[in-house]
Specification:
single chain; alpha/beta; Dehydroquinate synthase-like, alpha domain; 2 domains; two-stranded antiparallel sheet; 14 helices; about 10% strand; binds 5,6-dihydroxy-NADP; binds zinc ion
Length: about 375
């Protein structure tokens, strides 16, 4: 096992009908900025319940944070935070609203040009204090509710932003608030959670036995409940399991002390930035192609994945690996998510542009060993056609 620090200060408040507890979770004297997206929380009544729970506090709202939140939109909220002397930020939404809110708290505390914060990559941004945030999760997918990162879109790129100050103080996870999600967003949630898990698991062996078994538990749970929670959106337990898997797939637990890949995510980000394809759908396209191209480098963990996640134990090793890749592709397709670039209208001629974008964004040595060069990324994109 590799050396690691594990730190996670986020309180999880999980279960039905707990929104009223916001009153206890946020200081009574706080002036609160409630942030939300394109309006689903208004339409389905969540925002009203949040306002009710906040009682007599001074509350200001900021709506319109778009999927793949944009720097320019978030900077408008930074103006509000400063002008109104806000002292608590409450995100009500999915990954985009949570990520946006994290950026807003950081940018509000930063004295320089906030664009600098987009250039820190996976290093923490240079800040020592920021306003506290809380979240009410309406889409289980990204794990943003219990981690310290966000992804911000700006001028044709998607930029990771990290800071221990961006951990939510609390996240309220009520599975019933997600019952209104359209099937395609639930499928996105299952797939994003699945890929977060394999990015930290299908790498190279590191004797992280707890991490591996936990990752396998998440993956098997997703396979058990994935289709069910799309087809039966109000089945509480299926949705609750998706929600808790999503949180645990990216809160640092399964990634501590083991190698991590993330090439699928980085290549996927370029597909979102260039063609507007949903985050999780880009992952469904890229992940099977990454495994196809890097079968040899990932051989041991792919065999473990085949056996422990898909019960594939018979046949030649290479055949078992191929079967596991096909099972994975079939799982995503079975959730209604196509896994080939062509299905999204992206043709071979676009690969040059995608590789150029990876180069522009410094994504030239990806993967658990840094061996995913631009040339390997090109082969991955070709395998995804
Ligand atoms: O904007 P509204 O009107 O609220 O509608 C949203 C949005 O259109 C809708 N929605 C959310 N909750 C709903 C609902 N509709 C009905 N009922 C509900 N309960 O769903 C749409 C998508 O929302 P979004 O927040 O964009 O989706 P998701 O949670 O998948 O977040 C994607 C973003 O997270 C980033 C991605 O890059 C992308 O920008 N990620 C963040 C990560 C992190 N912070 O750790 C890790 C991930 O790998 C990912 O990169
Ligand atoms: Zn993701």
């Amino acid at each position: 096992m590799l050396t690691f620090d594990f730190y996670n200060p986020t309180r999880i408040v999980f279960g039905k009908d707990r929104l009223k507890e916001l009153n206890k979770l946020i200081p009574a004297e706080a002036k609160v900025l409630v942030l939300y997206g394109g309006g689903s929380v208004k339409k389905f009544g969540t925002l009203d319940k949040v306002r009710q729970a906040l009682g007599e506090r001074k509350v200001i709202e900021f709506g319109g944070i778009e999927p793949n939140p944009r720097f320019s939109t978030l900077m408008q909220a930074v103006e509000v935070v400063k002008r109104e002397s806000i002292d608590f930020l409450l995100a009500v939404g999915g990954g985009s609203v949570m990520d946006g809110t994290k950026f807003i708290t950081l940018a509000s505390a930063y004295d320089g040009n906030a664009e600098d914060l987009l250039r820190c990559g996976f290093k923490p941004v240079p800040l020592t204090s920021a306003l506290p945030i809380g979240t009410v999760v309406t889409l289980p997918a990204t794990g943003s509710e219990m981690n310290s990162g966000g992804v911000i879109s700006h001028q044709g790129g998607k930029y990771p932003v990290f800071s221990p100050l961006a951990f939510p103080q609390f996240s309220l996870l009520d599975p019933t608030l997600t019952f209104t999600l359209p099937p395609t967003q639930v499928a996105n949630g299952v797939i994003d959670t699945f890929i977060h898990t394999v990015e930290q698991y299908v790498t190279i062996p590191a004797e992280g036995r707890f991490q591996d078994r936990t990752a396998e538990g998440i993956l098997r749970t997703l396979i058990e409940i994935g289709k069910k929670t799309i087809d039966q959106p109000t089945d509480f337990d299926a949705r609750a399991n998706l929600m808790w898997c999503a949180t645990n797939a990216l809160n640092g637990l399964i990634g501590a002390g083991v190698p991590q890949d993330w090439s699928t995510h980085m290549i996927g980000h370029e597909l979102t930035a260039m063609f507007g394809i949903d985050h999780a759908k880009t992952l469904a396209i890229v992940q099977p192609a990454v495994w196809t191209v890097r079968k040899e480098q990932k051989r041991a963990k792919l065999l473990q994945y085949a056996e422990r996640v898909w019960d594939i134990t018979e046949g030649e090793e290479t055949t078992r690996i191929d079967q596991a890749i096909e099972k994975t592709r079939g799982f995503f397709e079975g959730l209604g998510v196509p896994t080939r670039l062509g299905a999204y209208g992206v043709t071979a001629e676009k690969i040059d542009d995608l590789v150029a974008a990876l180069e522009k964004h410094g994504m030239t040595r990806l993967g658990e060993t840094g061996e995913v060069t631009l040339e390997v990324s090109r082969r991955i994109l070709e395998a995804a056609l």
